[in-house]
Amino acid sequence: MEIERHEYDVVVIGAGGAGLRAAIEARQQGKRTAIVCKSLFGKAHTVMAEGGAAAAMGNVNSKDNWMVHFRDTMRGGKFLNNWRMAELHAKEAPDRVWELEAWGALFDRTKDGKISQRNFGGHEYPRLAHVGDRTGLELIRTLQQRVVALQQEDEKLHGDAEAYIKVFQECTVTRLLKDMSPAHGPGGAIAGAFGYWRENGKLILFDAPAIVLATGGIGKSYVVTSNSWEYTGDGHALALLAGAKLINMEFIQFHPTGMVWPPSVRGILVTESVRGDGGVLKNSEGKRFMFDYVPEVFKAQYATTEEEGDRWYTDQANNRRPPELLPRDEVARAINSEVKAGRGSPQGGVYLDVSTRLPAAEIIRRLPSMHHQFKELADVDITKEAMQVGPTCHYVMGGVEVDADTAAASVPGLFAAGEVSGGMHGSNRLGGNSLSDLLVFGRRAGAGAASYVNALAGRPKISDEAVTDAKAEALAPLQRSGENPYEVHHELQRTMNELVGIIRKEEEVSEALESVEKLKERAQGVGAAGSRIYNPGWHLALDLRNMLLVSECVAKAALLRQESRGGHTRDDFPGMSPEWRTKILLCELTPDGSEVIVQEQVQPPMRDDLIQLFDRDELKKYITEKELADFDALAK
Ligand code: FAD
């Protein structure tokens, strides 16, 4: 069987914000670049992002700056973040937003014509640059436009628009290939990627010394999720299988507000902008319950009365934020507790009301997609009645361990950016910090890959044996008449949702692990009847390997971390532990690839000038006695 072959300097897997920004950078640095995406070009998760991109431009409140943004990000991540990533992100996000504007993005404006910025949970000042509640769409449109502009340049220069940047859409990568010859070190170096065209099932091989993973998240391992079909953890699994490490996999963000009704749309996101723009959460008794759930570490920054919280929307200098705008992990747990206590809505959520808070015309102006979404999907007019909402699996904080400055993974030639990478958001991501993360680290990954290629002495080679193995693996489900892959998938989703969900216990996570082990065996035998032409059963059979690997990482790391922090809540270890904060959990595969092993790694201490941005009183809630003593010594 013929395998289509292509040769590039850099192959970017994923065409969301991270992938496009990486590809643009690699091409701008003169590298022949391919963008490969398993969905249609433009149909990535980024397109669904509603609220905006967080960047401390200070357009709405001039007190905002990178240091405030850095502090908010570290607090949101409960100090587990890779602080160098959080620093680069806070410093570079404004430039990346302005760059987008220069490339044609049309952001909403303030009255004096600057890019408008909105409030979001955990951000001290209005910080999210936005386009109504369709920011991701504008971001992707602008980056695509930039790709086209570069192609037009290439057409003029080389007579071929695709000479330096080409898109391969509806093309799924199933394996990364390495050159294992001793010249590339003991673990080998990236030499290319193998995949198939979804439309006709034909096989494709990319020969490239540098690969940027930008494949997004893992939500499809859970039943209730805001994520769409592409989020099967492919990049996470491809990295593991290539010998790279994943970090922070126990931290999954359950967004507090997903739709809960009707069942067919359960999990679809209700943007945080609803709360940022004044929406409030109420239980079945009509009580604004979030005031009962402000944790000790945040008490100083949040309003204690409804009146103060309400005044904050118009006078932020003299009032504290309402607790509806606590970081997402706090709000999700609070909703979970209210429902468990029997104070939920009829369909198992709570009420999110904006109808009594803003005039109807203002709701439609500020939240057009939400208005449309509820009208179309639930027959609810959000200008007249409250929405019913509940937690939904939304984002994975864990991902490929990368170098903060270059986005390089531990495998030579492998880079990762966006949701597939780990570290930036610590144990919990603040809303709006993903879109800016994609731009900041997408650019850095593209630059990192270009410099890596420039420094290479010789181009790594793909062996025939590696191609034969990748081909056999890809075609195997078509050659079996085994179990239906959908059944295995559904069982995995139920297992993860029920046993490794928002609240975790040792017995349940252990039970999940046993179940994942059995599902791994069953997945070996799944079959996909039919041909290779648009065969979704076959595609799912291949995605199962990835979802199972990722779920094993999540469950094993969740079992090991004996504390509650951000997107990891252990019923049996309810508090945050300063000792655990110094540790990162690292997942890698055993040499035979059969099992995930998880190890503890010590976090490097925060650089002196960065730790001094925090008050001692705040730090002592998070850090160990020893770290506090070091901090005191520094202050002397
Ligand atoms: P994506 O945009 O998901 O792109 C992944 C790409 O990888 C896709 O092109 C996909 O086809 C491709 N891919 C995956 N696997 C393969 C494979 N095996 N082979 C080839 N291609 C592959 N964040 C914010 O900051 N602000 C917001 O307002 C916001 N709102 C959100 C609303 C919703 C509904 C959701 C789901 C998320 C939201 N987020 C928001 C989070 C944010 O949108 C995502 O984290 C971010 O877009 C991820 O971008 P990415 O570039 O990493 O991946």
From TrEMBL:
Molecular function GO labels: steroid dehydrogenase activity, acting on the CH-CH group of donors
Keywords, ordered alphabetically: FAD, Flavoprotein, Oxidoreductase
Pfam families noted in UniProt: FAD_binding_2 (PF00890), Succ_DH_flav_C (PF02910)
UniProt KW Amino-acid biosynthesis keyword: no
Cofactor(s) of this protein: FAD
Active site: 328
Domain Fumarate reductase/succinate dehydrogenase flavoprotein-like C-terminal as annotated: residue spans: 489-583
Family matches, as InterPro entries: FAD-dep_OxRdtase_2_FAD-bd, FAD/NAD-bd_sf, Fum_R/Succ_DH_flav-like_C_sf, Fum_Rdtase/Succ_DH_flav-like_C, SdhA/FrdA/AprA, Succ_DH/fumarate_Rdtase_cat_sf
Superkingdom per UniProt: Bacteria
Domain FAD-dependent oxidoreductase 2 FAD-binding: 9-435
NCBIfam families linked: PRK07803.1
Protein name: Succinate dehydrogenase / fumarate reductase flavoprotein subunit
